[in-house]
Amino acid sequence: MSGVLTQLVDELNRGTLKVVDLTQPLGPSTPVIGLPPIFASSPGMTIDVISKYDDKGPAWYWNTIRMGEHTGTHFDAPIHWITGKDLPNNACDTIPVSRFVGPACVIDVTGDVSRDPDFLLTPERLEEWEAEHGRIPGGAWVLLRTGWSRRSDVASFINAREDGPHSPGFDARTSKVLAEGRDVLGVGVETIGTDAGQAGTFDPPFPNHATMHGAGKIGLASLCNLHQLPPTGAIVIAAPLKIVNGSGSPLRVIAITPA
């Protein structure tokens, strides 16, 4: 084993580094994104027992699960959006595995979101963060810490009103800066999707999806425990299931960070 990998194991064993789970529990009560009735919607998760130490299987327990690819803490591949549909290596089974691992830049906007659930991260606010913590490096995960994962009931998590859901996200200009100017791996959010709740009304609609996936970047949604990560210095591993031609996948996102 190389010296770097040996040091990693030693520091994990000593507790100077820790592994943080950034993943929400996945089950039948996990909320899914809602769409207007004219569009097909993704189903929630269902779990059906195949056998559980019974006549159907006396010594084993297993289940059948059914859900949409974009359920719970999940991965958005570039092929998920029309802007990324013709890119090479754009699906869950073809994206190089090296692109699932990268340094994390955690931008804390919890105070802003507590005052305004429709808060958008602007380029100016991004520059303020970089002035304090350094320029976001290429190949980084940019994680927007909003405190949204503390919303434990479905209604407050979706936060829908008569005019649709209200949740924070990225200003369209910021998505362009991150995708093109910083060449990030992708972005991660605590909300149900990587665009703001009102992004369907933006011009163009859903700009983070359109920009990120058009540039071959990845989205991570419904993260949690971002408060356990420093602004810089953590490594995030976000590996989807190797679904053939998959547009996305539920996944277990973990971070390795100084204790």
Strand order of the largest sheet: 1-15-13-5-7-11-12-4-14
| Major pleated sheet | 9 strands, mixed
Structural class: alpha/beta
How big is the Rg?
A: 19 Å
Mean pLDDT: 97
Instruction: Provide the low-confidence segments as ranges.
Output: none
User: What would you call the shape?
Assistant: globular
What is the H/E string?
A: HEEEEEHEHEHEEEHEHEEEE
What percentage of the residues does DSSP assign to strands (E)? 25-35%
Note the total helix count: 6
Distance between the termini: 23 Å
What is the count of β-strands?
Answer: 15
Helix content: 10-25%
How are the elements arranged and paired?
Layout: H1 3-14, E1 17-21, E2 46-54, E3 57-66, E4 74-76, E5 101-108, H2 110-115, E6 120-121, H3 123-133, E7 141-145, H4 154-158, E8 160-161, E9 164-165, E10 169-170, H5 172-181, E11 186-189, H6 207-214, E12 218-221, E13 234-238, E14 248-250, E15 253-258
Parallel strand pairs: 5-7, 6-10, 7-11, 11-12
Antiparallel strand pairs: 1-15, 2-3, 4-12, 4-14, 5-13, 8-9, 13-15
Helix pairs in contact: 5-6
Account of the protein in words:
- The structure is a single chain.
- With 259 residues, this protein is an alpha/beta fold.
- It has helices at 3-14, 110-115, 123-133, 154-158, 172-181, 207-214; strands at 17-21, 46-54, 57-66, 74-76, 101-108, 120-121, 141-145, 160-161, 164-165, 169-170, 186-189, 218-221, 234-238, 248-250, 253-258.
- The strands form 4 sheets. It has a 9-stranded mixed sheet.
- The protein is globular and about 65 Å long.
